[in-house]
Amino acid sequence: MVIRKYAKVRSVADAARRAKSGVGEILRQSHGFKSYYVLDAGDGAGIAVMIFDDRESANAANAKILAFVQASLPDLDLGVPEITTGEVLVHIEPDGSSGIK
User: Fold this and answer.
1) What residues have CB less than 8 Å from 6, skipping those under 6 apart?
2) CB–CB of 63/4 below 8 Å?
3) I need a surface site. Which of 20, 65, 85, 96 has the fewest CB within 10 A?
4) Model's pTM, two decimal places?
5) How far is 65 from 25, CA to CA, in rounded Å?
6) What is the pLDDT of residues 40-50, one digit of tens each?
């Protein structure tokens, strides 16, 4: 999993809307991609969460996405995100299924 937190976004909703197609295309073409979420954490904080099959796939996609954001959304002054990566240890589905590593 990769979590990117942007602390001072002028409009998280606008950034998410504008990035959706570009980031979506990068992710759809990325090996091991599972899911992607964008959260408006309030006070100008935007958080993106990506889930992949493995760390290598996540790191490769994250690098492409960071390059896309810097090249395509410079007017939003997103700055450098705080990035957290790690292995998902527990996953619980609504149907009661779960996974534990």
Assistant:
1) 12, 15, 45, 46, 47, 48, 78, 79, 81
2) no
3) 96
4) 0.84
5) 10
6) 999 989 999 99
Strand partners, 52: 33
The C-alpha atoms of residue 11 and residue 7 are separated, in whole angstroms, by 11
Q: Is 86 exposed, middle or buried (0-12, 13-18, 19+ CB in 10 A)?
A: exposed
Please tell me the distance from the alpha carbon of residue 64 to that of residue 49, in angstroms, as a whole number. Answer: 15
Give per-residue pLDDT as tens, 62-81: 899 888 888 888 887 787 88
CA distance 70 to 80: 9
- Closest listed residue to residue 69, CA positions, set 5, 11, 9, 15: 15
Domains and their CATH numbers in the chain: 2-85 (3.30.70.100)
pLDDT at 99: 64
